[in-house]
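dumping this here before i forget
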Amino acid sequence: MELLGIVGSPRKNGNSFYLVQKALDGAKERDPFVETEIVQLADLRIEPCRACESCAKEPFKCVTEDDFETVFEKMKRADGILLASPRYGPFGASPSKMQALLERLINVNTLPANVNSNFLFPLQGKPCGLLAVSVEGRQNNLPVLHSLEQYVLAYHMQPVHTKLWPFVGVNGRGNEKGDVLKDAEAMRNAKVLGALLVETIKNKGKM
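structure:
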């Protein structure tokens, strides 16, 4: 089983990274044979969508030559995915690279299907866990989690919900690097999410 964590923060090895790392620790505790990888968008060049609609003519292929294709291929290979993002600004926006990745995934997934309804979405049914962090934490992260969930649903992926508030994902608090490690609740919930992601993948194979 392969799990992929995608960290949307422009700060490398920041609080979003620690949340994903803890979730993958929980996954490995649930199944020691799980293989994990973390991609930090801070290391990559992800350009905004050009709205050229070329991906409708060449299905699931973006003409912009940057690191998007590398991330997309990793997402397709993974059995489960974790998406983590800090909250930027008063309206709960994700950082620009994360937003660019999400928007381009929308088009390479949906535009081919608009042309040919028989296309299968490349990420169809793939379980995905969500994590968010901000200075204030708690309800201030809900716009980020809800936004990420809407994208995941648009890709025809399966959001993994927990039985812990806010249910849709993990909610962390922190500003300076490493602050979220002091958020004991977020750390516990991240491990729960990682274990649940493994369980979801295993149960999916039994259906």
